[in-house]
Amino acid sequence: MHDKQDESVQHLIEEFLTARATRKPSPHTLEAYRRDLRTVAALAGELVTPPLPLDALPVAALTPRLMRAAFARYAAPRAAASVHRAWSTWNSFFSFLVADGVVGGNPMPAVDRPRAPLPRPKPLRGPDTPEQLLTAVARADARQRDPWPERDVAVLALALCAGLRLSELLALRVGSLAGRPGERRVDVAGKGGRPRVVPIEPELDGVLVDYLDSRARRFGARTVRPDAPLLVDRRGEPLRRGGLQYLVESCYRRAGIGDRVPPGARLHALRHTFATRLAEDGASAAEIMRLLGHASLASSQAYIEVTAGQQRDAVRANRTNRVLAGLVRGVAAR
User: Fold this and answer.
1) Of residues 20, 165, 215, 272, which has the active-site annotation?
2) What mean pLDDT comes out for the span 248-254?
3) Which portions of the sequence form the region Disordered (predicted)?
4) Active site residue 252
């Protein structure tokens, strides 16, 4: 190792954040990295003898023993999710330092961390919201410069009826739609290199056929060759991440359902709605796992647990229960 081991943790944190900035994280994310790194490092500085401020604490001092002690202090007043996030940030920081030849190894595997809590599903709110959304978007909107309802409905339907992620939608080719009539499917390049096959019902198949027909009329039959991107913008160019996010956002506005979309789950709310309805209709966790391409059964189980909780809430809200409660109290008083 070279003399960078004597550099202060504070300086190296800023080097790490500068390197991370090339990935274009949001300012909020970058600030969260800085806060997690500086807070734990400050605790480590308090634990050495004599105590050292961040700008004088050498990275060589961050041994596994010191990091365990610092994280123990950090974890005491904080929720498990916060501790897990800080652990991940520090793990990335040390991986960066190892790759840069600053330190010889990453001490974080020696530091225990809480299990990351599974995120709760965030489907669209309201029992008929998906149907309202599709119905509204299927109508050409005169306020749009170049309305293309067939394409917009196809995007929403693939997320609502096949549960595709944003990256999976963008990766689809025209040839990803395969199979004979009645046995149609979509071949999905799933997250983490896990391909999967999702069956397509005749209704979704019809929506996709209408979209491809409208696209051929707009740009010519050559644009719907099997190797062509399935989703394109109004110029016929492949739809990109920002364009797809904007499209879905505009569909919510046109349908007037923006207040029924959970914060932070814009396009993902459609996938969560697909999974939640599967659970409501009796699908098992294993079936949901296969259809959504989850890496673990626990992620799929979350939809079933939420659905069970909603069913319990619905039963509890039944006004007849209040009548029964009154009758029980009356009987007990006699």
Assistant:
1) 165
2) 95
3) 110-129
4) no
